[in-house]
Design brief:
By secondary structure, the chain is α/β, with parallel strands linked by helices. Helix content is about 50%, strand content about 20%. The strands form 5 sheets. An 8-stranded mixed barrel has the order 17-18-20-21-22-23-24-25. A 5-stranded antiparallel beta sheet has the order 2-1-5-4-3, with helices on both faces. A 5-stranded mixed beta sheet has the order 11-12-10-15-16, sandwiched between helices. About 35% of the residues are buried. Bound molecules: ligand C2E and magnesium ion (MG) (2 copies).
């Protein structure tokens, strides 16, 4: 999870940085493009303006020259001189007219006036300044004549003597002498004056490279941030005459651009931050929040909220508020993991409790019933211990499949751990619950095939009903547990919770629990020993250990008063451990004076199903350095015959370890000869109810005789318990009974008592 967060975080940081870089690059490129476009636009604008103004100036100067020419042509002296074809007079008239302050000469830029005859021979000439030598641009006149425009004028530009001139040629028609009048002007001063109009420094450069005019400030402007526009003037034959350049400073433009850039940057940064904020918000709600919620749920050991209703085996993934597909899948997987048992795929305890809480909450709102079944597999540990956990796991899966097969979609099956399952049956009464329990029990009847093994598995089922047996989760689970104790008495079987039994179990459990914990009061639980004697030799065969419980009020409880409760409440294992340990320890001290002494321990059916029993006894033997033949184990006939197939294997195991095994209270259960033969037992202990009055009750005497014969035929030794009189003792001797136990020879005695008895007993025995 940490790694994921780290990656996500670095990914986020990288994304933000990349986004920032993209935004910065975009801003940069945009401003560059914007700047270039602005420059282009500025240049374009200046180009047009310059062209426009230059053409205006030339048009104005042409117009001035034309008007002047017309004035000449209309002048009487001029006509007269022309008619007279007197060149000197003509030149004089022209000169007079040109000389300032001639009213007609409005333009100081007029440089010279020439008159040509029809054959372009120069008839008259006048120039404004003596610097101008000769006729300027005569080729224009030739061209005009060639063009032969009978009316109207022609105009053109030319360069002469490193000077730009404009010439206007007017045809001379209304005099007797026809020809052309050429008015030449200098357009440069007017063009140079454009700089002020345009507010830009200008430069006029001839095609040869000579500058005709350079405005002050040209160099500074053109070498700085400037847009330089140029306009070229050409001669009539399209050769370049002059280039007019205007340098427009773009400082103002740049400052405006800079301002715009700053605004743009602010907007982009703001948008980027907004995008990052939205992304973070999105990630927070779609990624971090679900993850945090999930980890919180895990840390609380609870399932994730919003578990949907589903069938007994249906997937119950909740509705995750996740929008990323992959993350959504991950979320669902984790959620599924949180509510499922990984081995069997059924729901786990967390989901069970959650669903029970939902049921309880629903029940508070509207009356509803439900049944809770606690299903416990009988002897499952045995499969695990003997065939390995892998086989055990496979068997569990098959058991789950069979259970699921008899459940409805609306039922919930959950594994509590080990071989314990819980089923919730909604809207179910006691009869229906019993029916379902029966169906589950029946579904287990056929053998299971697991990796080549044919295995049988049966279950015990406790049932509690809501609301009769509890209106909250804890009470319901506790009470279904009590029902399970009762169910276990009749394996395989089921039982509905009974408050009376529960109260009994509860009370005993509480006291027994206290007695077995570490604060055990000295002598609160203790063992007494009753000798079993060999009839033929008169020697002690073994001492049977019998447990006693002295209550704090001084009352002595016999095993019949509390063994069953210990079995039902699950404390029997603890109790047995204590008994085995105590018996072994006390045997060691008794063996100091009687080295071959053995002790007999009674084993409860419940502890017999605990497949660690062998380990438990083995550990005690090692702890006290005892040999296995020092122990004799008694199991009552009723308990053995309840489930002989299963008991046989564990008894085999115990027998292999070298313990002598004895069937206790023989005659009270219904022994099958078949099993009796197969059981690895060494002796039978005939129940005291047949023995104590066999001297007076012939039926019992017959039973005892038959039992002794049967046992001997099967190769078993026979012990008679409850021998209270010499007569009985003697009859047993006659019948060939091997050993006996009873008040006649000795009552159960505590540790000190038995030590004394052992010390004195030999003499007693010799006297028998
Ligand atoms: P059990 O194993 O058959 O033990 C013999 C019972 O007969 C003992 O009762 C003993 O006190 C009683 N008894 C012995 N001689 C005579 C006699 O001459 N006449 C009469 N009327 N009774 C005699 P206890 O000690 O009350 O034990 C009752 C049963 O409790 C035992 O029957 C045994 O099944 C069980 N038990 C005793 N101790 C333990 C124990 O440590 N663990 C387990 N699991 N069960 C035990
Ligand atoms: Mg016994
Ligand atoms: Mg007995």
């Amino acid at each position: 999870m940490k790694r994921f967060q780290f990656n996500l975080l670095s990914g986020l940081v990288i994304s933000i940085v990349v986004l920032g870089i993209i935004a910065a690059a975009t801003t940069f490129v945009t401003t560059r493009v914007y700047r270039d476009l602005s420059f282009e636009f500025q240049r374009d604008h200046t180009d047009r303006l310059l062209a426009h103004k230059v053409e205006d100036v030339l048009a104005a100067s042409e117009e001035g020259a034309r008007r002047l020419g017309e004035q000449f042509l209309a002048h009487a002296d001029f006509k007269a001189a022309l008619d007279a074809t007197d060149a000197d007079r003509l030149s004089a008239v022209l000169e007079q007219q040109l000389r300032p302050p001639a009213e007609m000469v409005s333009q100081a830029a007029i440089v010279e006036v020439n008159v040509y005859n029809r054959d372009t021979g120069l008839l008259g000439h006048a120039s404004r300044s003596s610097e101008v030598a000769g006729v300027i641009c005569p080729e224009l006149v030739h061209r005009a004549r060639a063009a032969d425009q009978p009316s109207g004028h022609a105009a053109g530009l030319c360069v002469s003597g490193n000077q730009l001139y404009q010439a206007v040629i007017l045809p001379i028609t209304d005099t007797s002498t026809s020809g052309h009048l050429q008015v030449v002007s200098d357009p440069v001063p007017m063009l140079a004056a454009l700089g002020e109009v345009l507010e830009m420094p200008l430069r006029l450069v001839l095609s040869g490279g000579d500058a005709l005019h350079v405005s002050p400030g040209w160099n500074e402007t053109a070498s700085g941030n400037a847009v330089v526009s140029a306009y070229t003037l050409t001669a009539s034959d399209a050769t370049t005459l002059i280039k007019i350049e205007a340098a427009g400073s773009v400082d103002a433009l740049l400052s405006r651009l800079g301002q715009t850039n700053r605004r743009l940057t602010v907007v982009v940064v703001a948008l980027t931050l907004l995008a990052v904020a939205i992304a973070l918000w999105f990630v927070r709600y779609s990624v971090f929040k679900p993850l945090r919620e999930l980890s919180y749920q895990f840390s609380q050991g609870r399932l994730v909220v919003g578990v949907q209703d589903g069938g007994a085996n249906a997937g119950g993934a909740g509705n995750a508020p996740v929008s990323f597909h992959a993350l959504g899948e991950l979320y669902e997987t984790l959620q599924d993991m949180a509510i499922r048992d990984p081995l069997t795929g059924t729901y786990n305890r967390a989901l069970l409790e959650d669903r029970l809480s939902q049921l309880v909450a629903k029940q508070r709102r509207e009356p509803a019933t439900a049944a809770i079944l606690l299903v416990d597999m009988v002897r499952f540990k045995y499969v695990n211990d003997l065939l390995g956990h892998h086989t055990g796991d496979l068997l569990l899966k098959q058991v789950v499949d069979r259970m699921a097969g008899v459940l409805r979609e609306s039922d919930t099956l959950a594994r509590l751990g080990g071989d314990e399952f819980t089923v919730i049956l909604p809207d179910t009464n006691s009869e229906q619950a019993l029916q379902v329990a029966e169906k589950i029990i029946q579904s287990m009847e056929a053998d299971f095939e697991v990796e080549g093994h044919k295995l049988s598995a049966s279950v015990s089922i406790g049932i509690a009903l809501m609301p009769d047996h509890g209106k909250d989760v804890d009470t319901l689970l506790r009470n279904v547990d009590y029902a399970m104790y009762t169910a276990k008495k009749s394996q395989p079987g089921c039982a509905i919770f009974d408050p009376n039994t529960a109260a009994e179990i509860k009370a005993a459990r509480m006291t027994l629990d206290g007695a077995l914990n570490h604060d055990l009061e000295p002598n609160e639980l203790f063992l007494v020993y009753q000798p079993v004697l060999d009839i033929k030799t008169g020697k002690i065969s073994y001492l049977e250990a019998l447990v006693r419980w002295r209550r704090p009020d001084g009352r002595l409880l016999l095993p019949d008063d509390f063994i069953r409760v210990a079995e039902q409440s699950g404390l029997i294992r603890q109790l047995t451990e204590w008994i085995i340990d105590t018996a072994c320890r006390e045997l060691v001290s008794l063996q100091q004076s009687s080295p071959d002494l053995r002790v007999g321990i009674n084993l409860s059916m419940h502890i017999l199903h605990d497949y660690n029993l062998a380990d438990l006894i083995g550990a005690a033997l090692r702890r006290y350095q005892l040999e296995s033949r020092s122990l004799l184990l008694e199991i009552t006939e009723t308990e053995v015959m309840m489930d002989p197939e299963q008991v046989i294997e564990i008894l085999d195991q115990l027998s292999d370890m070298g313990f002598e095994l004895s069937i206790d209270d023989f005659g009270t259960g219904h022994s099958s000869l078949v099993y009796l033969k197969r059981l690895p037992v060494d002796s039978l202990k005939v129940d005291k109810s047949f023995i104590s009055d066999m001297d007076t009750d012939d039926d019992n005497a017959s039973i005892v005789r038959a039992t002794i014969d049967l046992a001997h035929n099967l190769g078993l030794r026979v012990t008679a318990e409850g021998v209270e009189s010499r007569q009985v003792y003697e009859r047993l001797g006659e019948m060939g009974c091997d050993s006996y136990q009873g008040y006649y020879i000795g009552e159960p005695m505590d540790k000190t008592g038995i030590a004394v008895w052992l010390h004195e007993g030999r003499e007693v025995l010799h006297g028998l």
